[in-house]
Input
Amino acid sequence: AIDGATTYLTMPGLVLLLVTGIFMIVKGKLPAFKTRWLALHAGFGLLIVLNAVFMLYPTGPELLDTASQVAMGALPMEQLHAIGGREAAFGAANLLLCLTMVFIAVVKPGIGQAI
Output
């Protein structure tokens, strides 16, 4: 269920995030790289997608496979904990990136003018 949610909801949602962000910048003729807060916002969006695609997404199937092998007694439980810890760390990083991105979008903390 988690793998399906990641594959069919999270990953397409991240692609939609990038596409709509780029569309809004291009269609709205926003000076994305001249308005510092907007460039920073877009950069954090890109970091979120890269972290999800290259770190979090591959960890899910690896975690499931390792859990199956641990259940059969083929691998030690510590290996499952290591992968789970890696997933938790990258997940926490994505959460912090998301919260920072929201903060930048709402507050525009003295790094450019509001649009």
